């Protein structure tokens, strides 16, 4: 398998896969989209369940490698294109913090905001994956205040992951629209890759909505 092999991104607009597509743009990676209309249930079709049995996006195929889970995909892609400089190399003092904040997203932030959105109490502290929602938000806010990026002056793939997540969670009121969060998202989202993917996502989402509206009832 060569690095230059085209990457297939299993994709649906305005989902977690959006961040992966932005990252591919940032990396200058060769890729093509395998678009799934989730409003039509294409992510639950047998063909896609062979790719990801959970029926979730994103997933990528690169040669013989199939990678699911947003955090794993972020690490895989940024390491695959070291020339883009979006992943501190092994041995770089920033490598540990970089991995920490990517893992923190999946293991703490996602379950915390999910519980928040469902108005569920977290598990007792001895069994909670993240402690409390306030703990998670406070730790993240303190880190972002150091700015301008998650790791200070260095922009990395972790910023793509977090900026997309904070954009959506602030929009739905799951994260407070404080200056540390809002300024960070505005700064990262000003990059051309975010505008390009955002515009194309909006058009594709509209197509999916229209297709779902005319789909015959089963």
UniProtKB/TrEMBL annotation:
SUPFAM superfamilies: GST C-terminal domain-like, Thioredoxin-like. GO terms for molecular function: transferase activity. The keyword Translocase does not apply. InterPro entries: Glutathione-S-Trfase_C_sf, Glutathione_S-Trfase, Glutathione_S-Trfase_N, Thioredoxin-like_sf. Keywords: Transferase. It comes from Polymorphum gilvum (strain LMG 25793 / CGMCC 1.9160 / SL003B-26A1). This is Glutathione S-transferase domain. It comes from the Bacteria. Residues 4-85 form the GST N-terminal domain.
């Amino acid at each position: 398998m060569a690095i230059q092999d085209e990457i297939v991104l299993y994709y649906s607009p305005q989902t977690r896969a959006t961040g992966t597509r932005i990252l591919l743009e940032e990396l200058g990676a060769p890729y093509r989209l395998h678009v799934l209309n989730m409003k039509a249930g294409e992510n639950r079709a047998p063909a896609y369940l062979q790719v990801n049995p959970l029926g979730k996006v994103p997933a990528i195929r690169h040669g013989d490698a199939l990678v699911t889970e947003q955090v794993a995909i972020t690490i895989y892609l940024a390491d695959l294109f070291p020339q883009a400089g979006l992943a501190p190399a092994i041995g770089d003092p920033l490598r540990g913090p970089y991995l920490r904040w990517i893992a923190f997203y999946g293991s703490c932030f996602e379950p915390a905001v999910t519980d928040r959105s469902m108005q569920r109490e977290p598990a007792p502290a001895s069994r909670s994956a993240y402690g409390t929602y306030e703990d998670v938000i406070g730790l993240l806010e303190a880190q972002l205040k150091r700015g301008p990026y998650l790791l200070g002056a260095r922009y990395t793939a972790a910023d793509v992951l977090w900026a997309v997540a904070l954009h959506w969670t602030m929009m739905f009121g799951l994260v407070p629209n404080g200056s540390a969060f809002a300024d960070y998202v505005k700064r990262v989202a000003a990059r051309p890759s975010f505008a390009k993917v955002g515009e194309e996502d909006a058009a594709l989402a509209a197509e999916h909505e229209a297709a779902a509206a005319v789909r015959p009832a089963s």
